[in-house]
Structure formats: C-alpha cells, structure tokens
Amino acid sequence: MPKILVVEDHQILLESISLLISTIDDVELVGKASNGQKAMQIIEKESLDIVISDVNMPVMNGVELVWKVKQNYPHIKMLMLTVSEDAQTIKDALQAGADGYIFKSAEKEELEEAILSLMNGKKYFNDKTIMSLAKADNEVFMPQKEALKSMLTERELQILKLISQELSGIQIAEKLFISPTTVESHRKNLFSKIGVNTSVGLVKYALKHGIS
C-alpha cells in the first residue's frame, strides 16, 4: 500500500486534497505539509512512496522540493498537482525530476490513475500538460513537411489529427469506428515513421506542421 504525503500551501486545498486521497482505495495518507521545507521534515522521518505537491509555495516551492527529494530519496515518486499551465514551470519540474504533472481541475479518477502509474514505475502527464509543452516547443522532430506527409496513410493522418486534438485512444476508436487495438497499431506506425516514441512527439509534429 503506497504511503502518500500531500504538500499544499493553501489550507483549505490541503485539507480537501488530503480528504480526497483518503477516499482512494489501497493508499495511505501519512502526512500533510504547507511548504517544501515542512515536507522535507516529514520525509526525513517517514517512509514514503509518493509526494503529491503544489508548485507555487512559499519558503520552498514544489520544484525545489522535487530536486531535494530526488537528490536524497530517489525512490520517492513526485507528482505535481497544480493550477500552473505555464510551459516553463512544467519543464522546470520535469528537469528537477518530477514523475508526473496534473492539474487541480483533475477528477478523482485521474488522480487515482496518476498514482497507479507512478507506483507501476511509469510517468504520468495529463493531456493539458502535453499540450502546454507542445505549443511552447518549436523543436522539429522530422524532415520536410511534404516529404513526411507523403509517408503517412490517410488513416494515419486522421489519427494524428485526433491525437493533436487531445482525444484518447478509445475516443479516436469511437470516432473512426475502429477498435482501440487498431488505433494503437496506427499510433506505433506513426512513432516509427515520424521518429518519436511518445504522444508528446506526435503532438509537437502535428502542431509544427499544421496537422490539426
């Protein structure tokens, strides 16, 4: 059962998030802190698996907290739960070592999914995070537009457009009247042809080349 610490400087939100965590099955809330400094004091004493932290906090902010935790307790997973959609803030958190990044507008189910992903050794970034990074980054992943587009089938282009519109695999399958397995197969083909290995790469390519 993963042990979780919640870090949030607004008291009402701290209590609300903590209450929400306590309603999730098979997790244990072991502490609450109002800033990174207080969080570190708890981390030094408690055996923890996940720290769920805000980004903008006094004394020690969330990015600084991630860095300190990863330097001293690399086994602890760091999930950022914040209102900040600023691409640079997201990048700073990721560079510090954050394992996941979601927004406070997320539903309970998404928070559960993020926690499960982290406990399974995976990263978790919601669609808004991916889009914020993609829109801010003009990095080119592939050769010239027309040459690449000629490599993609009509179906692959359809799926790429829908991915760039933040649709999930299931939503794409329903929209195109195909199975989720077929969508995943096309997604893998896109990875191979475009030369990326994540959905972020696909979104960046689509935005860069006006495929949306």
* The CATH H-level homologous superfamily of the largest domain: Response regulator
Poorly predicted segments? 138-148
What coarse outline follows from CA principal-axis ratios?
A: elongated
Q: Could you give the order of strands across the largest sheet? A: 2-1-3-4-5-6
* CATH architectural type of the largest domain: 3-Layer(aba) Sandwich
Major beta sheet, specifics? 6 strands, parallel
Count up the helices: 11
Q: Look at the helices and sheets and give the structural class.
A: alpha/beta
Helix content percent band:
40-55%
Order of helices and strands: EHEHEHEHEHEHHHHHH
The CATH top-level class label of the largest domain:
Alpha Beta
Number of structurally distinct domains: 2
* Strand fraction: 5-15%
From the 3D structure, determine the CATH topology of the largest domain. Rossmann fold
| Secondary structure: number of strands | 6
- N-end to C-end Cα span: 42 Å
Report the C-alpha radius of gyration, rounded: 19 Å
**Mean pLDDT level:** 83
Summarize the topology.
Blueprint lengths: L2 E5 L3 H12 L5 E6 L2 H8 L6 E4 L8 H11 L4 E6 L4 H10 L3 E4 L4 H12 L4 E2 L1 H10 L8 H5 L4 H11 L4 H8 L3 H15 L4 H10 L4
Parallel strand pairs: 1-2, 1-3, 3-4, 4-5, 5-6
Helix pairs in contact: 2-3, 3-4, 4-6, 6-11, 8-10, 8-11, 9-10
